[in-house]
Amino acid sequence: MSCKQAEDKAQKPVYIDLETYFKSEAGRLSKKKNLVNKTIRQNGTSESKNKIEIDWLNELSLFIGSDINKPAWKDSYKIIQNNLELSYIALDSNLRTKEIHIQKDLKGNLNQIYIKNVNKNRLYESMEELIYIPDSVYSIKKEQRVLLLGDNSLFIEAKTIK
Q: Counting beta carbons within 10 angstroms of the beta carbon of residue 2, is it exposed (0 to 12), middle (13 to 18) or buried (19 or more)?
């Protein structure tokens, strides 16, 4: 094996490459210029905007930031696979991304990605649930608890208009 082949093999993602996938999706969706209906609920207050264009790279940034392909995390996730679902479960409680579930249809096309992120320290707790359904909807549910500042909840949903 040549040095180049060894390098290529060493750099191949161990887990699903969410960063590349969602950056590609952001580019694809930006080119399509689909309009969306977007709802944001924060601490009981709701706002909806209909038929708007969005910055997909910005909108999908939490999904991109949930990528688990870091060399130090190579053996940090348990992989569970069946016919229609692939799951990654964190083995280390210190990892931010706790779960990733990828559902496919019978033809192998991606149906849905679910991601659960958790951050905890003495002053701060945060939990995010991210759902992405290609060409349909994405949602972000975020709960925060900050010592001395209290609780904060956020829910964002954007549905593509077809």
A: exposed
Locate tokens 């990654």: which residue?
88
pTM: 0.88
**Residues 36-68 pLDDT 10s:** 999 999 998 999 999 999 999 999 999 999 999
Give the residue ranges of DSSP H helices in the chain. 3-11, 18-32, 56-59, 61-64
The answer to whether 103 touches 116, Cβ cutoff 8 Å, is no
HSE-up (13 A, CA, CB side) for residue 128: 16
CB hemisphere CA count around 75 (13 angstroms): 0
Contact 23, 59 (CB under 8 A): no
CB 25 within 8 A of CB 64: no
Q: What is the CA radius of gyration of the chain?
A: 18
Name the 3-class secondary structure at 148.
coil
Would you mind telling me the total number of residues written for the chain in this entry? 162
* DSSP helix, strand, coil percent of the chain (3-state; round to 5): 20, 45, 30
Q: Which residues contact 63 (CB under 8 A, 6 or more apart)?
A: 18, 22, 113, 115, 130, 132, 138
